[in-house]
């Protein structure tokens, strides 16, 4: 993967407009290199096939990336005329469900590539001439940063499609480094007290991360690392999928109807658990965080273990709050952007790192792997923060608020650094398993 200059956005802004332009260009180029990696590794038939009704054909994502870039940057920022207005409705995510997108008259792969390439060339010209201030969409390069994040989010979606597709192996990457450490404590203590949740200062933060607000959190204990495969196999072996005692009524009904017996992509072969990972069948590694579990499974495991899922506020306090300074950091380790020594991000390894990895990314409370590796389910519904204001469009967050979605935090190995920070909020239906989701558990402290 191409890596962008990892100066913080605040650093780039402080150094001046030209430095900020360089940072934006680097992020856009990084995203486009990843898009090419995900779409050039398969043939046209693969690109136009719908590999799962849950996902779009890869060629839809490819053209949608270009269409959103044209809409927001060339039209809204640059005031340009639409290049191909007849395709706008085809790539509007709200007009057509993923299941019906293969039936649309989509651009062919060569046309989608040419369109996205032409849009990007015009955008880089626009970037060179834009003041990056004075207009809300341009202040600190927000619109450009939003588009870089959007492309990387679709790259993660396309990586999910690659995991779901059948056929020859198309992607490869080296394994993550081995965890080099002694025994870790099973859990860390996060003392009671208020902290600042959300942000008002992260230049490219999205509307659901804002505004910052003080939240009082009771003392709790949190797993030092995400729950691993070996621990999850104990839940299975103890009949966790067969006992309604551990499941919410809705979760038990879903487990029964969907026939859940193990994480997605796992199957039993004799006395061994195997999994399919990007076209390769391999033994389930006991020391990796469990992956591809839905919220109901995570919640059931936590109940079986005598614990619970952390709330979103608990997760963010554990990840960001520094009691020594009484401030909330951008990341568990501080304000500097992620390095390969701190977090597993950016499709670098195509799998989570072993449980307990990345001591350099440890939070002030001692928790590890809060950023990267696996998205972590929380107990919380996806709701607006006090004082929320939809911006720059309602459809990014506001239309999804409600109890039907659960919040995930922390990113995964498939998430790019530009789209991952301590305040970043993801959400999905509690039945979703194709996403790169795992979890860790928490426990309240009596008397707090």
Would you mind describing this structure in some detail?
With 448 residues, the protein is α+β, with helices and mostly antiparallel strands. It has two domains: 9-164, Four Helix Bundle (Hemerythrin (Met), subunit A) (Up-down Bundle), CATH 1.20.120.450; 173-448, Alpha-Beta Complex (paralog of FGE (formylglycine-generating enzyme)). Helix content is 31%, strand content 13%. It is built from ten helices and 14 strands. The strands form five sheets. The protein has a four-stranded mixed beta sheet. A three-stranded antiparallel beta sheet has the order 1-4-14, covered by helices on one side. A hairpin with a 4-residue loop joins strand 8 and strand 9 (327-328). Helix 1 (9-15) packs across helix 2 (17-40), helix 2 runs parallel beside helix 6 and helix 4 (58-77) runs parallel beside helix 5. The chain is globular. Mean pLDDT is 95; it is low at 1-6.
Oligomer: single chain
CA radius of gyration:
22 Å
Elements, N to C (H/E): HHHHHHEEEEHHEEEHHEEEEEEE
- Counted beta strands: 14
N- to C-terminal distance: 46 Å
Q: What is the residue-mean pLDDT, rounded to a whole number?
A: 95
Question: Which architecture of the largest domain does the CATH hierarchy give at level 2?
Answer: Alpha-Beta Complex
CATH superfamily of the largest domain: paralog of FGE (formylglycine-generating enzyme)
- Unreliable residue runs: 1-6
Q: Can you identify the CATH class of the largest domain?
A: Alpha Beta
Computed structural class? alpha+beta
Strand order of the largest sheet: 12-11-10-13
Number of helices, where a helix is a run of at least 4 consecutive DSSP H or I residues: 10
**Share of helical residues:** 25-40%
Question: What's the number of structural domains?
Answer: 2
């Amino acid at each position: 993967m191409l890596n962008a200059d990892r100066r913080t956005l605040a650093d780039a802004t402080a150094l001046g407009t030209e430095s900020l332009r360089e940072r934006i260009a680097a992020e856009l180029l990084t995203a486009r290199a990843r898009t090419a990696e995900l779409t050039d590794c398969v043939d046209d038939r693969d690109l136009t096939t719908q590999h799962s009704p849950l996902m779009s054909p890869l060629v839809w994502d490819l053209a949608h990336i270009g269409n959103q870039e044209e809409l927001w940057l060339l039209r809204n920022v640059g005031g340009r005329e639409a290049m191909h207005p007849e395709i706008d409705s085809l790539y509007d995510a709200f007009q057509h469900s993923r299941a019906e997108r293969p039936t649309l008259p989509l651009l062919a792969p060569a046309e989608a590539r040419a369109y996205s390439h032409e849009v990007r060339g015009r955008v880089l010209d626009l970037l060179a001439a834009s003041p990056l201030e004075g207009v809300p969409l341009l202040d600190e390069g927000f619109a450009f940063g939003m588009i870089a994040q959007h492309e990387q989010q679709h790259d993660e979606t396309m990586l999910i499609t690659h995991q779901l597709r059948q056929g020859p192996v198309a992607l490869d990457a080296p394994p993550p480094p081995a965890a080099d450490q002694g025994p870790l404590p099973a859990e860390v203590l996060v003392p009671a007290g208020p902290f600042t949740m959300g942000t008002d200062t992260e230049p490219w933060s999205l509307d659901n991360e804002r505004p910052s607000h003080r939240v009082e959190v009771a003392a709790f204990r949190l797993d030092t690392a995400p729950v691993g495969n070996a621990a999850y196999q104990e839940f299975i072996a103890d009949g966790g999928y067969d006992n309604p005692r551990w499941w919410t009524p809705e979760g038990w009904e879903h487990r029964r109807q969907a026939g859940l017996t193990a994480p997605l992509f796992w199957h039993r072969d004799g006395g061994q658990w195997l999994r399919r990972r990007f076209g390769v069948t391999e033994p389930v590694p006991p020391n990796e965080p469990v992956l591809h579990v839905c919220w109901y499974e995570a919640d059931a495991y936590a109940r079986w273990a005598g614990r619970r899922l952390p709330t979103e506020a608990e997760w963010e306090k554990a990840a960001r709050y520094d009691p020594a300074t009484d401030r909330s950091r951008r990341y568990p380790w501080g304000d500097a952007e992620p390095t390969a020594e701190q977090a597993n991000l950016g499709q670098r390894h195509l799998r989570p790192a072993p449980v307990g990895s990345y001591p350099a990314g440890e939070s002030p409370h001692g928790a590890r792997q809060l950023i990267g590796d696996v998205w972590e389910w929380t107990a919380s519904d996806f709701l607006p923060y006090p004082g929320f204001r939809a911006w720059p469009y309602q459809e990014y967050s506001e239309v999804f608020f409600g109890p039907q979605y659960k919040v995930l935090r922390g990113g995964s190995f498939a998430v790019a650094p530009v789209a991952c920070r301590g305040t970043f909020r993801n959400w999905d239906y509690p039945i979703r398993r194709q996403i790169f989701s795992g979890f860790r558990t928490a426990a309240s402290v009596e008397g707090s």
